[in-house]
Amino acid sequence: MIINGGRSLAHIEKVTNIRPIMGADNIEQCNVLGWNLICKIGEFKEGDLCCYIEIDSKVPEREEFEFLRTKGFKVKTMKLGKFGVISQGLAIPITAFSELNGKTEGVDVTDILNIKYSVEEDNARKSNKVDPNVKYASMKARHKKIFQNRFIKRMMKYEWFRKLMFVFLGKKSDSPKGFPTKFEFIHKTDEERIENLPQMLQNKTPLVVTEKLDGTSTTFILERLKKGKNKYEFYICSRNIRMLKPEQECFHDHNIYCDMAIKYDVENVLTKIMNMNPNLDYVCIQGESVGTVQENPLQLKEDDFYAYNFITSDIGRWSSIGARMMLEEFGIKWVPILDTNFICPDTMEEMKDLATGKSAVNSDVLREGIVYRCASDNTISFKNVSREYLLKHNI
């Protein structure tokens, strides 16, 4: 669940739709929002509050979570083959945690329970905060011989020593800048999951459907420095950090963000658009950089970029159809559009079935899922991640 611009890994919700599992003696099914779960028989009554912990999470080593020790304390999508039931997430009675007394429905309790992402690097990569240690990594990359010294490596464990070394060897450009927040219509990209928005199934507004690509979120911005003048500042950003140079440390073995800016000549493309539209204060392209990152789930031979947002200072985010037409004129790819007049089905199970299919980018692999947007209402936007994809990738 997206709360205050970041993902909530644990939140208080109501348990609904409790029902039996054919042939099971000790377990039954229930729902939390639109998530399907397995729970112990009699553990909940309809309407009980629970602490719901989302998939892709890691819980702390404490008594309440001891049953997850054999799974590394990780919460993932699971399928009970014997019963053919998929369970996504974990529901625990709110009474199991004394620190949750008095908490009400919808409250984020991620930090209270010290819930983290299951993949260690995601705790920094997906966080809304800039990791202060990035500047040290950039400094070390520039002075490899010095930091290969055994004594130096041992002393770098201490914060006071890291700060001292940065005084002598660090550069101002080593310190990462956060994602720019001064642009009205430009925000960090993170779609809410349909399971957290079950009410959307009642909305029969036609939607545009695009493929969700599994890579790394990338943002390019060109800002006009003086009104009416052709002087600009170019921004290249990951989800949280502005990239100031190609060799800047990031969460991949190469700076794919700068690579894609060069591959598609993005600064020049945005400059042309700004020159043609002197009324604009800024223009932005957001999309997914894919390929040799995130273990290359699309099995691509080289890195690539697919846009999914085109934003201008006058109207904000453009419709997918109009944006694709604009950017394709400049040779920039748009995420595959699968449908332009989609109506949501009535049930969550029908909706989830639609998420699974072959990728339009590489038909030899499963797609991660799909994204839905309303052309006439920017507030309607969500994603539907394939359960089969999550099972295949152990998420």
- Beta-strand fraction estimate: 25-35%
**CA distance, first residue to last residue:** 16 Å
Please identify the structural class as seen in this structure: alpha+beta
Morphology call: globular
CATH architect. name of the largest domain? 2-Layer Sandwich
Largest sheet: 5 strands, antiparallel
Q: State the domain count.
A: 3
* CATH C-level name of the largest domain: Alpha Beta
* Helix residue percentage: 10-25%
CATH fold-level assignment of the largest domain: D-amino Acid Aminotransferase, Chain A, domain 1
Strand count: 23
What Rg, in angstroms, do the CA atoms define? 23 Å
The pLDDT mean sits at 89
Q: Name the poorly predicted regions.
A: none
Per CATH, the superfamily of the largest domain is DNA ligase/mRNA capping enzyme
Cross-sheet strand order for the largest sheet: 5-4-3-6-11
- Our count of helices gives 10
If you had to describe this structure to a student in words, what would you say it looks like?
This protein is an alpha+beta fold and 395 residues long. It has 3 domains: 2-118, OB fold (Dihydrolipoamide Acetyltransferase, E2P); 132-175, no CATH class; 194-392, D-amino Acid Aminotransferase, Chain A, domain 1, CATH 3.30.470. It is 19% helix and 28% strand. It contains 10 helices and 23 strands. The chain has helices at residues 122-125, 134-142, 144-147, 150-155, 159-169, 256-263, 266-276, 320-328, 348-355, 387-392; strands at residues 2-3, 6-7, 10-20, 27-32, 35-40, 49-53, 57-58, 74-75, 77-80, 85-88, 90-93, 116-117, 177-178, 207-212, 216-224, 232-237, 241-242, 282-290, 304-312, 316-317, 337-342, 369-373, 381-385. A 5-stranded antiparallel β-sheet has the order 5-4-3-6-11, with no helix packed on it. It has a 5-stranded antiparallel β-sheet with strand order 16-15-18-19-20. A hairpin with a 6-residue loop joins strand 3 (10-20) and strand 4 (27-32). The two termini are 16 Å apart. The model has no long low-confidence stretch (mean pLDDT 89).
